[in-house]
Amino acid sequence: MRRGPVLILLAGFFFDFLGGALGAGLGAPARAQELASERAQARIDRAVAILERLESGRELLAKARAAWALGSTRELGARLRPGAESKTDAVITRYFNPGTGEEHREREVLIHLRTEQRLEDLVLDLAHELVHAATRPAWDPYDPKLTPGDYIRAAIEGEGGEVAAVVAECRVGLEMAALSGASVERCRSYVPAGSTRVSADKVARDFYRVGKWSSELSRRLGSAALPRLSDDAPVLFSSTGRTPYPVALFREFEQINDIACENSRKRLQAVPGRTLASDARSRIRDFLQRRCD
Ligand SMILES: [Zn+2]
Q1: Cα–Cα–Cα angle for 168, 233, 163, nearest 5°?
Q2: What is the pLDDT of residues 229-272, one digit of tens each?
Q3: Contacting residues for 61 by C-beta, under 8 A, at least 6 apart
Q4: Which whole number is the average pLDDT over 125-146?
Q5: Domain ranges of the chain
Q6: Which among 279, 254, 290, 284 has a CA at the least distance from the CA of 269?
Q7: What is the 285 CA–ligand 1 centroid distance (Å)?
Q8: Quick one: 180 exposed, middle or buried, by C-beta within 10 A (0-12, 13-18, 19+)?
Q9: What is the distance, to the nearest Å, from the Cα of residue 285 to the centroid of all Cα atoms in its chain?
Q10: Beta bridge partners of 244
Q11: How far is the CA of 173 from the centre of ligand 1 (A)?
């Protein structure tokens, strides 16, 4: 399945980044490569055009336009790139004023889409990623109280999380099937027979199936952290880790935590005490104590 990594990049004295690796630049601009890229882009345009014909698709596009303050769906194209797999990358940049301790953040989002697949599946991928891209994450990497369990639950069940994304893609799939007879195999088990509704509960259950990873994950998170975790054979796998989502998300949390800790330590060291507002200093110390020691 399709979820972007949140890998983290750089740290500077007065700003740092949390986010995914952006798309790699193209190599030698051979004509064949250009043609392939034009074809891929054309397939993405077709997928957008199909979404525009569906009620649920129009809703998703409207949300994305609103999230990015775009005037038209055409402008959305700049955020959609062909890729080897479908995923949403977000880069969070944190700007920091060392004199006052104030900060503000910016979030840059880019959607990568695997174009080498059936057009119907590309449409579903686009619907799925738009849900992730149009919603701000329900967690704050610098929240001193953030636990890996919170992080995993938010990524799966939170607003704009995996369950919401699969429900949205399957709604699109059902409409597409009704309109054109397209088959939407990947949604089959989430739509009870004779129903036209997608079961969010069934989707959620599948996301928590981790098979052999169950006992290790429960041990590391504490058994109460994810009550729905089950040792049933996994059926949904993260595109980034090739593991069930809770496992991939646990690793992702550890990476984010390492970088957030490093950024915070550097910030504390780099700025002389007297120039950094004292409550900002104590916030950083609190963060380091709870999340990093
Ligand atoms: Zn996803």
Answers
A1: 15
A2: 999 999 999 876 589 999 999 999 999 999 999 989 988 887 66
A3: 48, 51, 52, 73, 76, 130
A4: 90
A5: 15-20+33-291
A6: 284
A7: 34
A8: exposed
A9: 29
A10: 237
A11: 16
- Quickly state the pLDDT bin for 26 (edges 50, 70, 90): very low
Q: How many angstroms separate the alpha carbon of residue 219 from the centre of ligand 1?
A: 26
Cα 108 to ligand 1 centre (Å): 17
Q: How far is CA 36 from CA 39, 41, 44, 157, 178, in A?
A: 5, 9, 12, 37, 32
**Ligand 1 centre and the CA of 262: distance in Å?**
28
Q: Can you give the length of the chain in residues? A: 293
Say how many CA atoms lie within 13 Å of 6 toward its Cβ. 31
* Nearby residues for ligand 1 (ion, Cβ within 5 Å): 2-3, 162, 165
Question: Closest by alpha carbon to 52, among 113, 126, 2?
Answer: 126
- Report yes or no: 221 and 148 within 8 Å, Cβ to Cβ: yes
Ligand 1 centre distance from Cα of residue 230 (Å): 20
pTM comes to 0.82
Report the chain's terminal Cα–Cα distance, integer Å.
34
